[in-house]
Amino acid sequence: MRDSDDRTTVQDTRGMRRRHFLAGAATVAGGAILAACGGDTVPTATTAASSAGATKPAASAATTASTASTTTAPTTAPAAASAAAPTTAPAAGAASSVVASAAPAASGATGGQISIYWTKPSTIHPLFSTAGIEQGVERQMFGALMRMNDKLEPVPDLIEKYDSSADAKVWTFTLKKGLKFSDGMPLTAKDVVFTFERAIDKRTGSYWRSRLLIIDGAADFGDQKTDKIKGIEMPDDLTVKMTLTTADGVWLQTISDFAGLCILPMHILKDTAPDQMQKAPFSFAPTPTAGAFIYSDWKADQYLEIKRNETYTAGPKAKLDKIFCKVLTQQDVGIAQLEKGEIDLMVVPVTEADRLRKNATLTVTSTPAPSVSFLALNIDRPFFKDKRVRQAMMYAIDRESIVKEILKGEATVVNSTIIGPEWMGTPDGLQAYKYDTSKAKQLLKDANWSASQKVALMYTPGDKINDALVPILQQQFKDAGIALDLFTVDSPEYNRRAVTGATPQAAGDFDIALVGGGVFRQDPNVSAKYFETVSFTPAGANYGHYTNPMVDDLFKQGRSTTDKAMRKQIYTKLAQIINDEVPWIYLWSPNSIHAYNKRLVGFKPPSYATHLVWNAEEWSVTK
Amino acid sequence: MGLLLSVRTEYAVGQYLLRRLAISIPVLIGITLATYVIVNLAPGDPVTALISPEAASSLGPDWVAGQREALGLNKPLPVRYALWLKEVVRGNLGFSLQDRQPIGKKIAERIGPTFRLMFTALALAILIAVPVGILSALRQYSALDYAVTIFAFTAIAVPGFFLALAAIYVFSLKLGWFPTSGMNTVGKPETLGDSLRHLVMPATVLGLAEAAPLIRYIRSSMLEVKRQEYVTVARAKGLRESAVIGRHALRNALIPLVTVVALSLPRLLGGTVIIEKLFAWPGMGTLAITAVQGRDYPVIMAINLITAVLIVLSNLLADLVYAAIDPRIKYT
Lengths: 623, 332
What we know:
Mean pLDDT of chain A: 83
Strand content of chain B: under 5%
Structural class of chain B: mainly alpha
Oligomer: heterodimer
Radius of gyration of chain A: 25 Å
Radius of gyration of chain B: 25 Å
Mean pLDDT of chain B: 85
Distance between the termini of chain B: 21 Å
Number of helices of chain A: 21
């Protein structure tokens, strides 16, 4: 009978390849149990491997930097140096010469299809997407003024060049000549202005709004007090001039964030009322657009199909015919498809990296993610007020062994959040907090820690790393004399307790929260969003409401100068303070692991792990 | 059996139907009210449900407040329920809070795949369970019976997700017979063969899980019928064994099957969360779980309402069919 046949087959396989079977089964079973609990379609709050966490927070650099009221150009980020002096963007050049030089260098022929791992999109409309995995694809479809390269730097996309005034308050963007939407209509400065207007309009409800309010007159326009944004002008069809209310050295980062602010087709959308935009059919069938790839088909819960834009003029045309973004809500399903060759590319958990490296059809890359995993401590809680308690917690955790065993070495232990970029490096003079239970006990004793004091660790279950990590933390805290309760919540409740339920006066409703995220490698000023007093939740990411006038002052100083040597000095001092004060328990900065089929040529790991397609126009397939 | 009787029966059926349907309206309203309250009691907020804490803190309290206002979440609970009920009565299931798409459209997109998977699984289950169950009963305490019993209990005891994962590992990754997941090969024209290849594993895993309890039902029902006096009478009259079993015993033994199958109809349309997730099947189960995770109240309500209506209807259907095939049962 059929049934007994099946059973024999299972047993045979088990006998022959027991280890493989068990490994595979364990791998997938873990995920399945999570699936059963309704695991992972929601971007998990505590991502260790940078998949979701890293994509969101890049606002920090921009928003915090923009609060600095300086008169000199506060070039706080890598690309800002070139921004201060009017520059022709390196990659832009003259469109024709770029085409000429790029075409022969092409390693693969035109044609072919690629499938990538995608999660269920909440929309395919760039004004409303919050997940990096959606935004990356949208940027490929729409095109943006600036986009993010693989080094967290903004680079021109649809523009020929940008200029900024000496005080970094006035920014001028010149579009490339001859840009067209895929229906043949020209893309002009009008479309750019329209996009900014819709993003800023309060009724639209766009995720972009808050970061664009720095444009002069944006707030009034957004509240319908004026019918034009004062700070956005169109000297001609190809030029958009933006005037900001304050100097902003990281304005380019802001508009290239979320993969880049995509330009909408005004001629299609101008009659859609702002509050109807998200509802409109365009949100799941965005066409026409002006990117290297354009919309082809959307099958709910199955895939988004995008195809080469044959009328693309902003750069060399894409080589691939099509890219399928397959909706897979289950990571283990994705891994199985990757191994079978049904998808070609995905972000994989560190726990799978070694196994997939052995697969001859796959290439596995490991790149440091910009994010940091940490335990946010609620400093409002009386029992966390004493810094010796917090230091004791640092000593109590054997981070080196956890990285080695659980993260398979795919992470770097950190002792502050100042971890980049290159010119900054890792500051000197930090306490390394090597695992030392007796030291932890001594510190707790000095701080009169009560053995009966219970503290709860809040986390979202469903992430393999975190699920393996928390019992170890519990045990190691217990060894040091801290009674740790594990407290699991799902993502909506986590958000409420950590962020939205907080008030400027009181931090959220938690003792310790397991968090991962931040683009700390982009600029040391990114940390401001997590430690400054003005960044208390719910308006910032200072989850524990840590406050220290010295830290506030150093961040301010760091933003007010462009001198890298000076900034390095300032942030080194700052790192030493937050390293000693331990407002968080710093864990590590994880690596992003990408695995892709060897038939895919031209893939480069993106700076945000989930922006898989950031350079898809260069991709091709072998055979 | 006479014309008179059938007319009387039809009359009785009509009245019975009306009465049952009338009772079901307050039941349905009660269900929706209870669901609405429970769903809204769940902690968390649909506005921040789909973003990370990082995003929540970047967007700030103003954005959250604006979205809540736009979605009508600031209105008191009774008002929201009344509005919802009013629209549903008009046939409008509303919009998803997550992607702002009409729920009717979302369900229409997913009910097809769910039908395809679930009816195949059910058909498979019946095709396996009926002969196996009967054979097992006829040869009670034989080696075959024990084998079937062990199989049935194993299939009931082993969770579906494990079976699914083992199937993916063995038949897809190791043997390469079937694709790991999905409904079609993406990027190739849709063909029947390709669709069937994708259907085999999820339908079999589900079908086996459905078949196992069915086998037990049919076996015990058959055993019971086998001992009935009319079967003995049939044998005593000298009927061939095949006629005794096929014509007399089997018909009656299959009556409980009606209940089991009818009551599994709502489940069929509701889809199955775990199997759909593991096989990346774009059905109702996936829609439901995403809605719950995202606190997408209108979608949860719509799925609940549809399921509730189906349960009411399939119960009614089971009762009607029962009465039709079993003369001992009458409408009252």
